[in-house]
Write a structure and sequence with these properties.
- This protein is of the alpha+beta class.
- It has 4 domains: about 180 residues, Ribonuclease H-like superfamily/Ribonuclease H (Nucleotidyltransferase, domain 5), CATH 3.30.420.10; about 80 residues, GIY-YIG endonuclease, CATH 3.40.1440.10; about 100 residues, no CATH class; about 60 residues, no CATH class.
- About 40% of the residues lie in helices and about 20% in strands.
- It is built from 18 helices and 15 strands.
- The strands form 4 sheets. Strands 3-2-1-4-5 form a 5-stranded mixed beta sheet, with helices on both faces. It has a 4-stranded antiparallel beta sheet with strand order 14-13-12-15, with helices on one face.
- Strand 6 and strand 7 form a beta hairpin.
- Helix 5 packs across helix 8 and helix 12 packs antiparallel against helix 18.
- The longest helix has 18 residues.
- The radius of gyration is 31 Å and the shape is elongated.
C-alpha cells in the first residue's frame, strides 16, 4: 500500500497561481510512513519578484520576510534530496508539483516523481460532499489548523487529514481508490515502463515503433508524457487506440522549445518517414494549385500546376493547395456546377476538335452558355474569381526572410525558425539553413496561423542571416 512506504506531504506558497509567471515563496516537506512522521523541513524562498499585496495579506508572507531568504537555486539540492524517490502527496498536487518542476527547469534540471492529489482522493472517498478544498476538509473533519496559508501550517492540516483517512477507511479501500487515481494502465508488452516514466513533460514530437522497428505513428504535443500516456489510457475505450497500443514496441521522442517547433517537426517527419498509421500529412511537400490564364476570347481557363514551381517562376495568383491534381479537378467541377460555369471554358471538360455546339452541362441547365456565346467573359470571369477567392494563396508579406523566434518561458532559451517565401529553411542556431526553398502545404498553413494568431511565447522578426 502507498502509505506503507515513505512518502512526503508537500505544500508550496507562491506569488500567485500562474505556474510559468509566478515563483515560490515558501515550501514545507513532511516525510511520513503510514501515520508516523519521520522528519519535517521548511524554508522561505526569495521569489526574486514582487509579492502582490493581496497575496501578502492572505499568506502573511511579506516582501521583507523573503528579502534575505535563499533563492530556489541555493536550496535545490536540499529539496531534491528530500523529494526524490518518494511519492509527493499534496492538496491540489498540480499546483505544488507544477511549481517544483518549473523551478528545477529554470535551473536546467529535470525533476519528476509520482504524485497523489488529496483533493481527488477526497472526491472519490466522499462523492456526496460539495467542496473538497482544504478549508472544507478542516471544517468537515475537524482537522487542526495552525497558520493557514503558510506552507508548514497547511502541510500539518493535510497530515491530520491523512491520519484521519487511515483511521476511517480500511487499507483495501484506500488502496483501491489510490490505484484508481493513479490510472496505471497496462503498457504495451514491448514497451519498457522506465522509458515511459522518463518521458519529459515538455513540448515535442514522439514516434511509436512496431515489430521490426517499423515506424507506426508520429505525433506532437505540448506535454509529451501526458500525450503518450493518453494513447494507452484511451486504448481501454477506443478500438483505434487499442490497435495502435497493441503494436507499439518502442517509443522515441525529440523535445522542442514550444508548440510551433513541435508542429513544424511533426509535419517534416511525417513526410520524411512516412509512418504507417498517419493519414494526414503524408502527401508530397510540393502541392498542386489552380492557376488562371485567359483564352483568345478573354475567358479565364484553369490550369492545375505544381505550387512550388509556380512560386519560383512568377507572381501569378494561385488558388488552393491540393495533394493531387484529382482533388483540384474535383473542386473545379463543384464550383462550375454551383456557379453555372462552363466546364469546357474552364478547361475541366476535355473536348476534341470535332466537338461543336453547347457543352453537356448547358444541355442539363448547369451552364449559362459561355460555350456558345450566351454569356460574356466579364460575367463568367467575375463569378469564377468570386468562387475562388476563399482559396487564394496569400502573397509573401515581407520584403525579406523572417524568423519565428520561439522562447522557453522558464529557461529563456530561444530558437530562430527561418522562413522565406512561405518555405521553412531551418533553425538558425543549429546551422541547418537550407538553400533550397521547398514549399510545403502544411508549413504554409502553419505559418499563416502564426502570423494571424501567434503561438504562445513566439514573435516574428526580420532575419538578416
Amino acid at each position: 500500500m502507498l502509505f506503507d512506504e515513505p512518502y512526503v506531504i508537500v505544500d508550496v506558497e507562491a506569488t500567485g497561481g500562474d505556474l510559468l509567471r509566478d515563483r515560490m515563496t515558501e515550501i514545507a516537506i513532511i516525510e511520513m510512513q503510514g501515520a508516523v512522521e519521520l522528519d519535517r523541513w521548511s524554508t522561505l524562498l526569495n521569489p526574486q519578484q514582487t509579492i502582490p499585496p493581496f497575496v501578502q495579506e492572505m499568506t502573511g508572507i511579506s516582501q521583507d520576510m523573503v528579502q534575505t531568504a535563499p533563492v530556489f537555486a541555493e536550496m535545490a539540492d536540499e529539496i531534491s534530496a528530500r523529494l526524490q524517490g518518494r511519492v509527493l502527496v499534496a492538496h491540489n498536487a498540480r499546483f505544488d508539483y507544477g511549481f517544483l518542476k518549473n523551478e528545477f527547469r529554470r535551473l536546467d534540471r529535470r525533476f519528476q516523481t509520482r504524485t497523489l492529489c488529496t483533493v481527488k482522493l477526497s472526491q472519490r472517498l466522499y462523492p456526496d460532499e460539495g467542496k473538497h478544498n482544504l478549508d472544507a476538509l478542516i471544517q468537515r473533519h475537524n482537522l487542526p489548523v495552525h497558520e493557514r496559508h503558510r506552507a508548514l501550517g497547511d502541510a500539518e492540516s493535510l497530515q491530520a487529514f491523512i491520519r484521519f483517512l487511515l483511521q476511517q477507511h480500511s487499507p483495501e479501500t484506500l488502496q483501491g481508490e489510490i490505484q484508481a487515481l493513479k490510472r496505471r494502465t497496462a503498457l504495451p508488452a514491448g514497451v519498457d515502463a522506465e522509458v515511459v516514466d522518463s518521458l519529459p513533460e515538455q513540448p515535442g514530437v514522439y514516434l511509436f515503433y512496431g515489430a521490426g522497428d517499423e515506424l507506426l505513428y508520429v505525433g506532437k504535443s505540448i506535454n509529451l508524457r501526458a500525450r503518450v500516456l493518453e494513447h494507452f489510457y484511451a486504448s481501454n475505450r477506443n478500438s483505434k487506440e487499442m490497435k495502435l497500443a497493441q503494436q507499439v514496441c518502442r517509443i522515441d521522442w525529440q523535445e522542442t522549445l514550444g508548440e510551433f517547433g513541435a508542429l513544424v517537426l511533426e509535419a517534416q517527419w511525417i513526410k520524411q518517414k512516412q509512418p504507417l498509421l498517419n493519414r494526414m500529412g503524408r502527401g508530397e511537400a510540393g502541392s498542386y494549385s489552380i492557376e488562371l490564364v485567359s483564352d483568345d476570347e478573354g475567358f479565364y481557363q484553369t490550369k492545375i500546376v505544381a505550387t512550388q514551381e509556380r512560386l519560383r517562376q512568377s507572381h501569378t495568383a494561385l488558388y488552393g493547395l491540393f495533394r493531387h491534381p484529382r482533388e483540384a479537378k474535383k473542386v473545379l467541377q463543384s464550383i462550375a456546377e454551383q456557379q453555372g460555369l462552363c466546364q469546357r471554358r474552364l478547361g475541366v471538360e476535355q473536348v476534341t476538335s470535332k466537338q461543336q455546339g453547347p457543352c453537356f452541362a448547358f444541355q442539363v441547365r448547369r451552364c449559362r452558355g459561355a460555350c456558345i456565346g450566351r454569356e460574356q467573359a466579364a460575367a463568367f470571369n467575375q463569378r469564377l474569381l468570386t468562387a475562388l477567392a476563399r482559396l487564394k494563396l496569400e502573397s509573401w508579406p515581407f520584403p525579406q526572410p523572417i524568423a519565428v523566434v520561439e522562447q522557453d518561458p522558464l529557461s529563456k532559451q530561444t530558437v530562430h525558425h527561418v522562413i522565406d517565401q512561405w518555405c521553412y529553411l531551418g533553425i538558425a542556431e543549429q546551422g541547418l539553413l537550407s538553400s533550397a526553398k521547398t514549399f510545403d502545404a502544411d508549413i504554409y498553413r502553419l505559418l499563416r496561423k502564426q502570423l494571424k494568431t501567434p503561438f504562445d511565447h513566439t514573435r516574428v522578426v526580420p532575419f538578416t542571416g
